[in-house]
């Protein structure tokens, strides 16, 4: 709810406080910051080194072979595409529905969307046997291949997500340019000056922002739905048991909201604690995010029941073999922990208000997020271990897949790189849209445009 | 079974256009042994049977070696007015695996890489086990070529599904798409990579193999261009394979060289295709494993270990 317009004096005071609070992430440079950067960069570098080995020696350094020819990298890819979909849900769908509590969370969701979709693009290149021929996708692209659809929608989604992040950032950048404290490093101020594109803050400009945001929010709806639907088709377009199903599109989209909502909760909590933003990411936000998470979990549970119960009722030969590995076979521990700890238990717990408080909800979200990753892994791997024809005349390690240290290194790289993108964004730009927040609090736009005293 | 007396399908194929940059035959092998001692100045050559030989440079005469681009062009077009088809007689297969050996030599494959794989099959719990050679099925509705993002694998007019390892990006979507597990990947440097260095790529044999790209059975398209039967067909000692042209309605047995009517052969023997319910329309037909000439000796493995 928009608050009543305040007096100029009150407004100025409040704006100073908001700006002070929301630039804390930009100003803060302590030991922990350095240590965090060090950890991220070091692990990312180790992963890149692993990729170097993989390029030199071939994809044989992974656990993949001719039967299980997609492994952890593809699981990561699907996971990242899934997580990125939260941008579509929170900063577009909820905004278009005018659900105002989600406003301060939009930028968090957009940070996650950008980082995740960027890493989805990178990890898929790391999975290629010939990454040097990446351009062939554009030179010889065949539009009949779902991979081409995926490349098209993922790049479009990344572009729109960056715009959805950047456009509402422009007034903030101008605000920092004009009112930023002396504690903000000079080079950052320089960046704000350039990126604010000479923003003046008049009505015409605000209208333009509002209009372009609306266009982008509508544009991202079909694109967002497409990215995960098309990603699911990479599997559903094949004839293999476990993948050969018609509900993969909505099943993946529902699962994506679960993973993304959990990621948003975790990041909100991190900002709340680390940058002391308790007044901004309030208990109320966690409570609503908890309810949202319950809702998307229920939808996902519904799809899971359809996805597993219907074939399990029939137990067709090949499907039956696949389902037995999941229910009682070698993947049973992973399958049941993902379903129980990542879906059913969280739903039950989050029905109680206590578990929607910041810390309990964050802990639940960590479980949900890990389970989401495991779920991607068991979507990709077990199906490939059971082709229609027997696996014979090959060494034993062709028959079962387990990731090698190189794959784990590259996976760690991808997570560290995603966190690095998020960290850099948080250290460079406010994590909540200052001008929107100020507007909500009843601060007049003219005050925003005032230069620093 | 009616035998059209050696109506040589093989001869009809023999429109050999420049022998795909390969120097022919074993006579060359024997001659170069003597020369090698005289002069150390030798060059490596790949024979049409897939062997790598060294010959003295002095012995070389200019042959019409098609360039890479020419190879690529004609490799994508295929042989005009042909529809290649294979018939595998399961009642004859005794798991000699000569087809697998010949194939691996021809296509520069590692021991664990199979363009053709002889599987031990058992259809249901109490039915008799049998051996089933399984090459690429060269489907008329190929799931693999559909999903290729760069048109590196494609279906030719003569029915053969080929793979262009000069273009393949190694995404392995085609492996995921193939229900017959017919495709292999070069996870490492291919076998004997150093020996094949500098050899012009022949798309119809997919040789030299390249690290990070896909390979699969090609019906020995390079040999077909020379008017020869595929390597596996010729290497079989037991008369398992029939190979020919559906347009001509003639198939030739690789062991006995007997030629017969394709339609009659599949009709008389109740031939079937693998997993026809998937709608892939294979070009490989199987004759049922009845009255098997040899007993099954292996231990039947779990199909989905």
TrEMBL record, chain A:
One of its GO terms (cellular component) is plasma membrane. The keyword tRNA processing does not apply. The chain crosses the membrane at residues 34-53, 73-96, 108-126, 146-167, 215-236, 248-271, 292-310, 330-352, 359-379, 408-426. The keyword Transmembrane helix applies. It is found in: Cell membrane. Keywords: Cell membrane, Membrane, Transmembrane, Transmembrane helix. Gene3D superfamilies: Formate dehydrogenase/DMSO reductase domain. Pfam families: NrfD (PF03916). Its main location: membrane. It is a multi-pass membrane protein. InterPro entries: NrfD-like (IPR005614). Belongs to the NrfD family. PANTHER family: POLYSULPHIDE REDUCTASE NRFD (PTHR43044:SF2), PTHR43044. This is Prokaryotic molybdopterin-containing oxidoreductase family, membrane subunit.
TrEMBL record, chain B:
Keywords: 4Fe-4S, Iron, Iron-sulfur, Metal-binding. Gene3D superfamilies: 3.30.70.20. Residues 127-158, 159-188 form the 4Fe-4S ferredoxin-type domain. One of its GO terms (molecular function) is metal ion binding. SUPFAM superfamilies: 4Fe-4S ferredoxins (SSF54862). PROSITE patterns: 4FE4S_FER_1 (PS00198), 4FE4S_FER_2 (PS51379), PROKAR_LIPOPROTEIN (PS51257), TAT (PS51318). PANTHER family: PROTEIN NRFC, PROTEIN NRFC HOMOLOG. This is Hydrogenase. It comes from Draconibacterium orientale. The lineage of its organism: Bacteria, Pseudomonadati, Bacteroidota, Bacteroidia, Marinilabiliales.
